[in-house]
Amino acid sequence: MAKHKKVVIKPKKRGQKPIVFERGKLKRMLGLREDEKIPEDKKRAALAGKFGPKVKKMAVFAFSGALAQGRKTAAKNRKKKTSRTRKKRK
C-alpha cells in the first residue's frame, strides 16, 4: 500500500492556522479505492453524518468547505485563460 501524504495549505491571512489533511483519507473511510470517484449517494450520506462525525467533518471540508472553494476558483480561472487565448488567435 502506498504511503499517504499529508498536505498543508498555508494561510493567506495573518492569524489563520494552516490547513492540514491527508490526501485520500475520505475515500478510504468510505471504503473506496483511490482511483474511484465518490458516488453521489455516498457523498450525500457522508455529508449527512451516516458514516460518523469524523467522516462528516471531512466531507464538509472536501465538498463544501475550503477545498471545494479552491476547486471552484481554479475552474473559474481556467475558463478565463481559455477565453483569452481564443480571442488572441482570431
Distance between the termini: 50 Å
* Largest beta-sheet characterization: 2 strands, antiparallel
Pick out the low-confidence regions: none
- Structural class comes to mainly alpha
Strand order within the widest beta sheet: 1-2
Rg, Cα atoms, Å: 17 Å
Strand fraction equals 5-15%
Descriptive account of the structure:
This protein is mostly helical and 90 residues long. It has one domain. The chain is built from 4 helices and 2 strands. Strands 1-2 form a two-stranded antiparallel sheet. Helix 2 (40-48) packs across helix 3 (53-63).
List key phrases describing it:
2 strands, two-stranded antiparallel ribbon, 90 residues, single chain, mainly alpha
Summarize the SSE layout with pairings.
Blueprint: E1 6-9, E2 19-22, H1 25-29, H2 40-48, H3 53-63, H4 66-89
Antiparallel strand pairs: 1-2
In short:
By secondary structure, this protein is mainly alpha-helical. The chain is built from four helices and two strands; from the N terminus they run ββαααα.
